[in-house]
Amino acid sequence: MTTPAAQPPRDRALGRGISTLIPQAAPATPAEQAAAVLTAMQTVPVRVGVLQAAVVLLEERVRATGDEAERAAAATTVAMLRTAISRAG
Fold first, then answer.
1. 29: DSSP letter
2. Domain count, the chain
3. pTM for the full model?
4. Of 9, 46, 69, 85, which sits with the fewest C-beta atoms within 10 Å of its C-beta?
5. What is the spatial distance between Cα 88 and Cα 7, in angstroms, rounded to a whole number?
6. Judging by beta carbons within 10 Å of its beta carbon (0-12, 13-18, 19+), is residue 62 exposed, middle or buried?
């Protein structure tokens, strides 16, 4: 009966996440994350109803937030969504 040879010890841990393999920038705020996603998705087809729902939610966020950066990002996003809706219609 044969037994498998012992594996040599590894010099690094297995199962590291992608964030450890690829250097990451400092953590982004939710507004920065949303802006990055919108930039990446400018050419992705989306149903108009989804955009309209997003406008309603973001307009409420513009009114409710006390964070000026978040308010500006939400307002910019609303404007972008309205532009996309008008082009689709």
1. P
2. 1
3. 0.53
4. 9
5. 59
6. middle
- What pLDDT shows up at residue 12? 55
Tokens 């006390």, residue located: 66
For residue 77, tell me if it sits in a domain: yes
Residue 60: domain span:
28-38+45-88
Residue 21 belongs to a domain:
no
Q: Which residue has the tokens 């309209």?
A: 52
For 30-63, what is each residue's pLDDT tens digit? 778 877 777 777 777 888 999 999 999 999 999 9
User: Is 70 part of a structural domain of the chain?
Assistant: yes
C-alpha dist (Å) from residue 4 to 7, 13, 83: 9, 22, 64
Tell me the C-alpha distance between 12 and 17, whole Å. 13
Which pLDDT score is estimated for 32?
80
Query: Tokens 């937030």 map to which residue?
Result: 65
Instruction: Report yes or no on 13 lying in a domain.
Output: no
Report the Cα–Cα distance between both ends of the chain, in Å, rounded: 74
